[in-house]
Write a structure and sequence with these properties.
Blueprint: H1 9-17, H2 21-34, E1 40-45, H3 50-60, H4 68-77, H5 84-93, H6 102-110, H7 115-123, E2 127-132, H8 139-146, H9 153-160, H10 180-185, E3 186-194, E4 200-207, H11 209-214, E5 227-231, E6 238-246, H12 252-261, E7 278-282, E8 285-287, H13 295-298, E9 302-309, E10 317-324, E11 329-335, H14 337-344, H15 348-354, E12 358-363, H16 378-388, E13 391-396, E14 399-400, H17 414-419, E15 431-437, H18 458-489, H19 493-518, H20 522-592, H21 596-620, E16 631-635, H22 636-650, E17 656-663, E18 670-674, H23 675-702, E19 714-721, E20 726-731, E21 736-737, H24 761-771, E22 775-778, E23 786-787, E24 789-793
Length: about 800
């Protein structure tokens, strides 16, 4: 026995798969483009107010959308049910003045001699026509392809294209579901179509209400058969789709909104894909489809370009260029295979299956937009920007993949990320951008059946993660430049006070001369007194500023400490869990054993575990609440050695050599500083090195350029160089690209997976260094442009 398909199933397909009027139009227009149409016209004829139309159908019990139970309840609620003749008068009053052929509709309504004729006239009142001059369809295609829901006709055309073709024909359709779009727009459809060389048009009429009436009967119980239509010139070809019994209200404003949101963005505005040959009319009046406002791009305050490269050495990788035009800055973006793996959590084969893509994005600071000569006022410029902004749209082979970059779509979480940071940079209202993919290059990025985005799979998730991550890097870049500019302009409290003191001394030197000049009159003596009082008040205000600056610095220290503790608490909790679990297992083994020697061994193991944990807690003790902000005298070289040894002992199973040494050997340096803060700095730097050395080893194993044996997989060295007055942490991991020399110190910047990196470690380490009058910088880059060392300039920390 086989599945039976009921007639009404096709109605569910139409209502569920085509999610909006915009998507419905896109599918129908796409069919015309696939037919190589050089002209596509969308015409809406609206002669009867929809509210009147739907009210009459409900009262007649002819509306399809109201469930039978509700329909009965509605009819019972009417004070008096009107006849179809009475409702005819209601329909005539609802006619739209000046609409095309409205007089013909009135005659048809008035001349109706039966309820059926009246309903037919009603349902023909409004219509949508999609007319093209494309290839058209033969009778055979109309029967075997158009009437097959889910046909593979277009998909086969794609497969049959020659793989060697440099520019294969772009075929937008694939799933064979576009004909359901007509059902979304109206209950009746008439298709008139023909190919070049044929003598007659072919036509097909479908009334979707017939499927509702058949209900649970088999689908083939509803007869749908194409037939030969009127004669035509053999040179003519094309397809007309006429949709009537429309299912929603229409207006010129609604069509204009679709033109702005959907039709204007059908093809890639940045690329070479020609605009679709589309013309819109509403009641015979043209509705313009806006052309892309290319002039806006010249006014952009920033631009970001990037692409995923899958060929050549060190692939896959991201290459790009970040610009901040407003400040004349630019920087290259490079992300290695290892960066992509750690950012996305995906393996290399998955990233390769995503396929190559390109991103091009323009950023506008709306607060500093200006009017444009020849374009309009600031309000006009902002309106035009609002029409085209919306985030990153997605285009496949030059044509849009809905709904990405639409008014209600934030697929890259741009707004959430923007509003969670200061300045709200890179929210969708500030961005005109697009990402491009192709049929051949991205076969795993497949459209959903309902045309609402890409299918959910591992490749799509990785694609989105890569895009979101590199956009976030661009956001960090813009913030970094802004902070640089602000720092250059900023006047510190100390600088302001120094300037005030200079002016105060100058005023003090002038006061005797002023007093001497004003002493001769009563008014002069009064003015002198007021001047002295003002100077006293200014000095008191300066003292308040000085106290406030001191309080702010103390608060900064407290916040730095708490933030760093928060980063370390996760690793500490993990270590305590691991140590206590191992200790409990050792105790359990001792209890189970009846051998005295085995018990003794277990106790020695437990003793070693507890000693290791005690050492760890000893290093962490300076981070306690009482000690966290207390400067004290201590010997720095030995303290750093304790920190490094403790870190190494906790990670001895990772096969990474972690050592410390001093220059000269056995040197000592007494300093006065917050002891716990050195734990924070060293722990952050060592943890970063540990993560990337291990990640690099995994990548080398994948590339078969390393072996998984007992040899060390990497080295981390901490050198306290007293001659150069610096602490240098060096590792042999992948390194930091030269172009990220300053970006890595920005708060929340990280290329680690989301759960493994907060992007605060280096930022807090630098803040701690500056708090102590020291500095934290990166070392020199190697021949490949990668940096492997972090330098802590000790500065003046003598105890």
């Amino acid at each position: 026995m086989n599945f039976r398909v009921s007639a009404r199933t096709i109605l569910h397909l139409g209502s569920e798969l085509i999610s909006s009027d915009g998507v419905a139009f896109y599918e129908l227009i796409k069919n015309s483009l696939d037919a190589d149409a050089e002209r596509v016209t969308v015409a809406i004829v609206y002669r009867l107010e929809y509210s009147v139309y739907s009210e009459i159908l409900r009262e007649l019990g002819e509306d399809r959308d109201t469930p039978p139970a509700l329909r009965q309840r509605y009819l019972q609620s009417l004070p008096a049910r009107r006849s179809w003749q009475e409702l005819r008068d209601v329909a005539v009053l609802g006619l739209v003045d000046g609409a095309p052929e409205v007089d013909d509709l009135e005659v048809a309504l008035q001349n109706a001699r039966s309820r059926t004729a009246f309903v037919n006239a009603l349902r023909s009142a409004n219509r949508i026509e999609i007319d093209d001059d494309g290839d058209g369809m033969s009778m055979d295609i109309l029967q075997s392809v158009y009437l097959t829901i889910g046909t593979s006709y277009r998909a086969r055309q794609k497969l049959e294209q020659n793989e060697d073709d440099e520019e294969p024909r772009v075929i937008l359709g694939e799933k064979g579901l576009g004909r359901l779009s007509a059902m979304r727009l109206g209950d009746r459809v008439l298709i008139v179509t023909g190919e070049t060389g044929s003598s007659h048009w072919n036509q097909l009429e479908i009334d979707w209400n017939d499927f509702a009436d058949a209900a649970d009967e088999d689908l083939d119980s509803v007869d749908v058969e194409p037939e030969e239509g009127n004669e035509k010139e053999r040179s003519e070809s094309g397809t007309l789709i006429q949709i009537t019994a429309l299912r929603s209200e229409w207006s010129a404003e609604k069509l204009q909104a679709l033109a702005v949101e959907h039709f204007s963005k059908l093809s890639d505005p940045f690329g070479t894909t020609p605009r679709p040959p589309l013309r819109l009319t509403f009641n015979g009046v043209a509705v313009p489809v806006p052309e892309f406002a290319g002039f806006l791009l010249e006014q952009a305050h920033g631009r970001f370009q990037a692409r995923l490269v899958l060929t050549g050495a060190n692939a896959p990788r991201i290459e790009g260029q970040m610009e901040y035009r407003l400040h004349g800055r630019n920087r290259a973006l490079r992300l290695t295979t290892l960066d992509l793996q750690t950012m996305t959590g995906a393996d290399v084969p998955t990233i390769q299956r995503v396929g190559t893509f390109e991103l091009d994005m323009y950023w506008f600071n709306r607060r500093i937009l200006t009017k444009l000569e020849g374009i309009g006022s600031l309000a006009v410029v902002r309106r035009i920007l609002a029409e085209w902004a919306g985030g990153v749209a997605l285009y496949r082979d030059g044509y849009r993949v809905n709904p990405y970059g639409g008014a209600n779509d934030d697929w890259l979480d741009l707004d959430r990320d923007a509003f969670s940071t200061s300045g709200f940079k890179l929210n969708r209202g500030q961005i005109i951008g697009r990402a491009t993919i192709s049929q051949r290059g991205n076969p795993y990025l497949v459209d959903q059946t309902n045309r609402e985005g890409l299918k959910e799979n591992t490749e799509k998730a990785t694609f989105v993660k890569i895009l979101a991550s590199i956009v976030e890097i661009y956001r960090q870049y813009l913030n970094e430049i802004d902070r640089d500019i602000d720092r250059a302009r900023r006047v510190t409290a100390a600088e302001a006070l120094a300037r005030f003191q200079d002016e105060d001394e100058r005023l003090g030197s002038l006061m005797p001369s002023v007093e001497e000049a004003l002493r001769g009159t009563e008014g002069g003596r009064t003015l002198t007194k007021r001047l002295r009082e003002t100077v006293v008040e200014l000095r008191a205000a300066a003292e308040l500023v000085q106290r406030a600056a001191g309080a702010q610095e103390r608060e900064r220290s407290r916040v730095l400490h708490l933030a760093s503790i928060g980063l370390m608490i996760e690793s500490l909790a993990h270590e305590l869990y691991r140590a206590t679990a191992a200790g409990l297992e050792t105790i359990a083994q001792a209890k189970r054993s009846r051998n005295v020697n085995t018990t003794g061994t277990s106790l020695r193991v437990l003793d070693s575990q507890l000693r290791t944990l005690q050492k760890r807690l000893k290093v962490l003790d300076p981070l306690s609440t009482n000690a966290r902000q207390t400067k004290e005298n201590f010997e720095l070289v030995g303290w750093i050695d304790d920190i490094v040894r403790g870190f190494a002992s906790r990670n001895e199973g990772r096969r990474i050599e972690i050592v410390s040494r001093s220059i000269p050997r056995n040197a000592e340096l007494n300093v006065r500083a917050v002891k716990g803060m050195f734990v924070q700095v060293l722990e952050n730097l060592l943890s970063n090195s540990l993560f990337w050395v291990a990640a690099q080893h995994r990548e080398r194993l994948r590339l078969h350029i390393a072996r998984d044996d007992d040899d060390p997989i990497g080295h981390i060295e901490v050198v306290v160089d007293l001659r150069a007055q610096r602490i240098v942490v060096t590792d042999d991991g992948p390194g930091i690209p030269e172009e990220r020399r300053e970006t890595v110190f920005e708060p929340f910047f990280s290329t680690k997976p989301q759960k493994q990196g907060k992007g605060l470690g280096l930022y807090i380490a630098r803040e701690i260094a500056e708090y102590h009058g020291c500095s934290l910088t990166l070392g020199e880059a190697d021949a490949d442009g990668n940096i492997h060392s972090v330098i802590f300039e000790i500065g003046n920390l003598n105890g």
